[in-house]
Amino acid sequence: MKYCRIILMALMVVSMVSVAFGRQYDPATGRFTKRDPVEYAAGINLYTYVHNDPVNKTDPTGLFATPTHEAMVDIVCDKTIPTTETTGCKQWITNTLRQKQKDQDSLRGGAVYSERHYTRNVIPTETSYDIATKDYDKYTHDEMTDFYTNLNKPNTAQKCTASMEALGNVTHSWQDFYGHAVERSTGSFEVFSQGRGETPFAFSGWLGPPTWPGQHPLDKEPLFSAGEYNARILAATKFLEEQYNDMITTWLSNCRCHCPPQQD
């Protein structure tokens, strides 16, 4: 039962099988007993638990693994970085964007970082939906501005790197919109399965960021139904692909000679 302690939310133990919110997990085999509801979006093995690394990663819902942000970056980069680019360039872009997902997740808690993760601060007082949304909009706008500003000539390896890192930062915040948004009036997380087409650029007042900690649990991702989780992942991946199609192309047109960057 070594790994049962790792699954901390919505857990039951029945006949040596741990039941996470979304799927059953068998600690004897280290695998889920049901297929991943997102099918092949998370990889070709539909039964693995946190990419076969349960010591360092957790998936308390059976749906959200710790490296979800990185996995979506991998998927979208594969789709949007032209196949004509060198392997080294493609790997550098993907790895830079992946690293910023880790960096952003290391910065959380308090009013200073709430805007990065589409959450509302609760200490010392609870931030309103409107103020938290305004802070989120400003942060994502600033990161996008940094992305394009650093592409202004003359191009240098340092500026091209800073531009890609800004894209990595805003990528995480965009993903967190899809991972955290709640219905304001009820606090329900069952929102994207309604199919209203909300995006970080265009969403109506019925959605808002959850409190952290509170509606968004401390050190855990919120619990979703399998249908809601699937809707959020698909919407986030679609949105990222749309943004990357333009932004990666723009970056390459300005920084291809610095990909991967060398010391100037």
Count of strand segments:
8
Q: What gross morphology would you assign?
A: globular
Low-pLDDT residue spans: 1-23, 35-47, 55-64
Biggest pleated sheet: 4 strands, antiparallel
Helicity level, as a percent range? 40-55%
**In the residues, how many domains can be counted?**
2
The whole-number mean of residue pLDDT values reads 79
Spatial strand order of the main sheet? 1-2-3-4
CA-CA gap between termini: 53 Å
Question: What portion of residues belong to β-strands?
Answer: 5-15%
Number of helices: 5
The chain-level structural class is alpha+beta
Radius of gyration: 19 Å
Q: H/E order of the elements?
A: EEEEHHEHHEEEH
Looking at this protein, list some descriptive labels.
about 260 residues, 4-stranded antiparallel sheet, 5 helices, 8 strands, about 40% helix
Structure description:
By secondary structure, the chain is an alpha+beta fold. It has two domains: about 1-50, no CATH class; about 70-260, no CATH class. It is about 40% helix and about 5% strand. The chain contains five helices and eight strands. The protein has helices at about 70-80, 85-105, 130-150, 155-180, 225-255; strands at about 10-15, 15-20, 25, 30, 120, 180-185, 205-210, 210. The protein has a four-stranded antiparallel beta sheet, with no helix packed on it. The protein has a two-stranded parallel sheet with strand order 5-8. Strands 6-7 form a two-stranded antiparallel ribbon. A hairpin with a 4-residue loop joins strand 2 and strand 3 (about 25). Helix 1 (about 70-80) crosses helix 5 (about 225-255), helix 2 (about 85-105) crosses helix 4 (about 155-180) and helix 4 packs antiparallel against helix 5. The radius of gyration is 19 Å and the shape is globular. The termini are far apart.
